[in-house]
From TrEMBL:
<dbReference type="GO" id="GO:0009236">
    <property type="term" value="P:cobalamin biosynthetic process"/>
</dbReference>
<keyword id="KW-0627">Porphyrin biosynthesis</keyword>
<dbReference type="InterPro" id="IPR014776">
    <property type="entry name" value="4pyrrole_Mease_sub2"/>
</dbReference>
<dbReference type="InterPro" id="IPR050161">
    <property type="entry name" value="Siro_Cobalamin_biosynth"/>
</dbReference>
<dbReference type="InterPro" id="IPR003043">
    <property type="entry name" value="Uropor_MeTrfase_CS"/>
</dbReference>
<keyword id="KW-0489">Methyltransferase</keyword>
<keyword id="KW-0169">Cobalamin biosynthesis</keyword>
<dbReference type="InterPro" id="IPR014777">
    <property type="entry name" value="4pyrrole_Mease_sub1"/>
</dbReference>
<protein>
    <recommendedName>
        <fullName>uroporphyrinogen-III C-methyltransferase</fullName>
        <ecNumber>2.1.1.107</ecNumber>
    </recommendedName>
</protein>
<dbReference type="Pfam" id="PF00590">
    <property type="entry name" value="TP_methylase"/>
</dbReference>
<dbReference type="GO" id="GO:0019354">
    <property type="term" value="P:siroheme biosynthetic process"/>
</dbReference>
<dbReference type="InterPro" id="IPR006366">
    <property type="entry name" value="CobA/CysG_C"/>
</dbReference>
<dbReference type="InterPro" id="IPR003754">
    <property type="entry name" value="4pyrrol_synth_uPrphyn_synth"/>
</dbReference>
<dbReference type="InterPro" id="IPR035996">
    <property type="entry name" value="4pyrrol_Methylase_sf"/>
</dbReference>
<comment type="pathway">
    <text>Cofactor biosynthesis; adenosylcobalamin biosynthesis; precorrin-2 from uroporphyrinogen III: step 1/1.</text>
</comment>
<dbReference type="Pfam" id="PF02602">
    <property type="entry name" value="HEM4"/>
</dbReference>
<keyword id="KW-0949">S-adenosyl-L-methionine</keyword>
Amino acid sequence: MTKTGVVYLVGAGPGDPGLITVKGRDCLRRADVVVYDYLANPRLLAEAPPEAERIYVGKTRGLHHRPQEEINLLLAEHARQGKTVVRLKGGDPYVFGRGGEEALHLRGQGIAFEVVPGVTAAFAAAAYAGIPLTHRDYTTSLGLVTGHENPEKKMSRLDWEKLATGVGTLVFYMGMANLELLTRELVRHGRPPETPVAIVRWATTPCQRTLTGTLEDIVAKVRKQGFKPPAVIIVGEVVALRSHLAWFEERPLFGRRLLITRSAGQAGAFQQMLEGLGAEVVSVPTIATVAPLDWAAVDEGLMRLPDTDFLILTSTNAVEFFFDRLRATNRDLRALAGVRVVAVGPKTAAALAAHGIRADLVPNTYQAEGVVELLRGLGVKGKRILYPHAELARDLIPRDLRALGAEVDAPVLYRTVMPEHGGDELRRLFAERTLDAVVFTASSTVQNFVKMVGKDAPQLPRGVAVASIGPPTTKTAQKLGLDVHIQPASSTLDDLAAAVVEYFRHQPFHAGDD
Ligand code: SAH
């Protein structure tokens, strides 16, 4: 059976990649081809399978959009080849997105299509700027209006009189070039000049900026600030509620751009934590975890599991590599029957739990010393212990436990290495001069960072703060010529994030921001 092609017209939402619908994301995950434009967040493209073809049809520096006709043909052509095509459009496909034209064309060609709505810019900008588009005390109606300067269809085609007084809240898309005209027309046709106006630029993204004023003074304010598109213009009494309801731009790290250097597998949760605080996070791993050069020692340990009394795991990496190897050697959880499992701390215990193993023991202090204390208390004389660990781990655990009379197997389970790529990206980021801080969560990330950046590292541009998770990392950074500005009292990711917040509470924004 040949596959029949289909086109999904998918709303990507306004920018925040979290604002695509579940259905839209599912379409992306099944796509053979993704056709996308300027306003769809590129981060969403990562949802498509790696082998999917990605076709950009938006504006590129100065050049104009591909003609609509060409896009229509492109969609139809790929669908005819039996492909699943996702046409990813900013916001909602049927709100000023020319989705209607694309759908009509597909219908005309007899090509199957479905439409997945998206969060349109007006709704998103209003929500993130703290402006309820309707509120019983202020307005009961809402209009979405295009303010596009289309030379053939003059703006005068809009029925200004009805718009000005007939609709409560008005939201203009593509209206920046015509801002002067549209504010003037609204006032001329009966809207009070003191009506509040908000302009929200790059809504829902880390670059969101909001400018407020009135129909009378907003044009001058826009000029003064050099406020540019893409932006929506919200007109109406509800705009006044922003002074009570703003939240997005108020988050403690909003407007700050942070570089994190954890390994790809470990960056996610920390990145989310910082983004939740409002930061824009760029992740360039300066460390990668890889298998040991030889599995023999680990495999021997696995073979002896039936006679092993304790298994000690001291990182989430160790947990993942351990279970990978267990599976790769055709074993399953039963291999751990009878073995008591020691996790160094709650994160490691949680990683174990995700694999179906409840840690028997977690020390009070989440360090190697804690593990030794714990086992000393239980008595380990004559016990067999397996401690598979990172290549450069301290030898405290095997040394001390052996001294207590245990028989300890301590094979290298994984190694950390410097990633092959990333140096160029790091140098580009520093050249852009938009970073506010670099965050290091281990000594090795600093060492590799300096190597990857090359000779310029010690002269990080002024204004870039260095954050370190704790004293060993700080010491390494200082030895390599980096000043450390941020270090939490205790070495956890939560405390590191809190220290970053505390630091930026007192830092002015870069020049150029409002
Ligand atoms: N289909 C889209 C609109 C496309 S028209 C939607 O439903 O949102 C393009 C206009 O949308 C821009 O000129 C701007 O007015 C608005 N827009 C889109 N994304 C925006 C964003 N993140 N912030 C502010 N305005 C945005």
